[in-house]
Amino acid sequence: MELREPRSRVKDFQPGMTNSDRLLSHAVLTENRSTADAVRPGPVLLLGAPGVGKGTQGEILAKIWGVPKISTGDILRANVSNGTPLGVQAAQMMKSGGLVPDDLVTDMVAERLRDRDTEAGFILDGFPRTVCQAEWLDKYLNAHRKGEALAIVSMCMDHDQILQRVVHRTVCPVCKTVYNTELMPPKRAGHCDLDDAELIQRNDDSAVIFKTRLEVFRRETEPLFEFYRSHFLFIEVDAGKTPSSVTRDISTSLSRLRNQMEQ
Ligand code: AMP
Fold it and tell me: Ligand 1: which atom is nearest the Cα of residue 101?
């Protein structure tokens, strides 16, 4: 099974930095570092509809906090590209916008969480997506990570706005850098700033498939907001703001709540 996410896209600032790098630039990182320094992230999960910006925030926060972002979607896509048995089982469900069976995903997450780089904390992106997965995660954390309260970051945005973002999303098949033809275009249309590869659209980002993904989200994942709402470390952020503001909101709230917990 392939458990490695594609390499991080977050880079330190360099002269001549490309457009997409700018989003995750030194400015974003330093702007947030003062609050982030105070944060001991522990286990964090980003909860929100597909396309809301969990991946982008996960990348930035992972860099600031020095913990791994674990994206079940990225791990599954890596398995599909490598043709592993898991990838073969998951491919059709992913293509249609449906969910991969819970037990396949929870086994995958359990194996990834055994890695030592998760000891100081980790950021879950795209997991859990069902109540069954959330219950599994609770049990797993109680059994293996005693005393570490899970922080839930609920990222909200109007679904029409998300659809507009997603249909314009393109990705580099080589380095996985994400662009948006409207909001964050590459320097040369259709080509990656970093390696010039031809950009593609994720095959589940078409308007039709994306609508299915949103329906699946409403049916399977939205109940998780209720599941977690009474949780002490529940943080709600407006994901429609600029990425750096969203990062700041998450960092500040998490820092405040973790400090309150200690008192
Ligand atoms: P994402 O990149 O998070 O949007 O995930 C892409 C696709 O991978 C989803 O549409 C699902 O088919 C599958 N997937 C990712 N995470 C999960 C999960 N936690 N449970 C079930 N399926 C998942």
Answer: 21
> Which pLDDT value is given to residue 16?
37
One-character DSSP codes across 167-178: HTEEE-TTT--E
* Residue 128, preceding peptide bond in cis (omega within 30° of 0): yes
Query: Residue type at 184?
Result: M
Ligand 1 pocket mutation, candidates 76, 130, 178, 216, criterion most atoms within 8 A of CB: 76
**Per-domain boundaries in the chain:** 15-23+31-68+115-262
Does the CB atom of residue 127 touch ligand 1 within 6 A?
yes
Residue 161 has pLDDT above 50, yes or no: yes
Catalytic residues: 54, 129, 169, 202, 213
- Give the tens place of pLDDT for each residue, 34-82: 554 556 789 999 999 999 999 889 989 999 999 999 999 999 999 999 9
Predicted pLDDT of residue 28: 53
Q: Which CATH number fits domain 15-23+31-68+115-262: 3.40.50.300, 3.90.1300.10, 3.20.20.100, 3.40.30.10?
A: 3.40.50.300
Whether the per-residue pLDDT at 26 is higher than 90: the answer is: no
Residues with Cβ within 8 Å of residue 161, at least 6 apart in sequence: 240
